[in-house]
Amino acid sequence: MFTGIVEEQGVLRQCEETGLVISAKHILQDLAVKDSVAVDGICLTVTQLGEDGFRVDTMPETLRRTRLASLHAGERVNLERSLLANGRMGGHMVQGHVEACSPVLATREDGIGLDVVIALPPDLRPYIVPKGFIALNGVSLTVVDVWSDRFSISLIPYTREYTNLGQAYEGMFLNLETDIVGRYVARLLQSQSTQFNASRDQQTLV
After folding, report:
1. How far, in whole angstroms, is CA 187 from its chain's centroid?
2. pLDDT tens digits, residue range 25-74?
3. Domain stop point among 28, 48, 81
4. What are the start and end residues of each Lumazine-binding repeat (predicted)?
5. 128 near 146, Cβ under 8 Å?
6. Read out DSSP for 95-149?
7. Considering the entire predicted model, what is its pTM?
């Protein structure tokens, strides 16, 4: 489990079909082999650890569903260690299970902020609501507006400086994970509606 509060930006040293080697500093302090780490919001397992970086394995499903396959050596990725039980939860509950990879449609400076509009995948529409949570490249953010085919967020200066969202540009792909609480609520309501309709149909037949 993660919070969506990025601890540092790592640099990709090697990008292979079966894994990534990432340079890092801060998160190495108590990182160990077999630990989970969020890389651009993707929960991955540390398989090797060095003095200035670590390696994670990548499965075919991960490459198909996320933006990892499009990255190259030298690019920056957002890093976060898993949540400690005694730590503050400053963002929201992020699993690191990316649901989609969507392109940035537009960016616009707005005072000290940067407004970013992202394409909204049809299957995620029920789970993205104005002022709700969303994780983009592992960063916990608040949704500003939602339309039928897109949604927007606004980046504060801190997020722009300390995460790779600060380099967002039109056409850039982002990893999306919707709020797990919202997904459970939507599934519960859907299940109750299905049961209600089935019960009503049965009564009609009787």
Report:
1. 20
2. 999 999 999 999 999 999 999 999 999 999 999 999 999 999 999 999 99
3. 81
4. 1-92, 93-189
5. yes
6. -----EEEEEEEEEEETTEEEEEEE--GGGGGG--TT-EEEETTEEEEEEEE-SS
7. 0.86
